[in-house]
Amino acid sequence: MSSSTISSRTVGPPIVTLPVGSAAYATSAKDKIIIYYTSIQEYAAAIYEWAQRTGRMNSVESLVDLAGSSDNEKEKFYKVPVDIIKAACEALQREHKAEVFYSEATDEHGVKFFYM
């Protein structure tokens, strides 16, 4: 969403004012909205810091494992839905800190982290 307020054209009168980056359309039809209690950028920073701290740089990690591995229980991104983990990793990719790999055969995705 480009505005910090949900448009009245979209869902009626403004219900709540949200910081920029704390919500996104869930579908291309723009009929559903996801509201993040932690921004994608905050998740991206936490994931990148984790990759550096745990020696995961230049290795490929599963997005499912990032979100669900019991080794990550104390991380901000633990048990976060994979779609949000994917969006955070795509944000890192735009910053050239990672590359996201998409599997056509399965719905598993991976990410490789790079030093910057």
Largest sheet: 3 strands, antiparallel
Number of domains: 2
Order of helices and strands: HEEHEHHEE
Distance from N terminus to C terminus (CA atoms, Å) equals 29 Å
At the first level of CATH, the class of the largest domain is Mainly Alpha
Could you name the ranges where pLDDT drops below 50 across 5 or more consecutive residues?
none
Structural class, please?
alpha+beta
Number of strands: 5
What labels would you give this structure?
about 30% helix; Arc Repressor Mutant, subunit A; about 120 residues; globular; 4 helices; 2 domains; three-stranded antiparallel sheet; alpha+beta
What do you see in this structure?
The chain is an alpha+beta fold. It folds into two domains: 1-35, no CATH class; 40-113, Winged helix-like DNA-binding domain superfamily/Winged helix DNA-binding domain (Arc Repressor Mutant, subunit A, Orthogonal Bundle). It contains four helices and five strands; from the N terminus they run αββαβααββ. The strands form two sheets. Strands 3-5-4 form a three-stranded antiparallel β-sheet. A two-stranded antiparallel sheet has the order 1-2. The radius of gyration is 16 Å and the shape is globular.
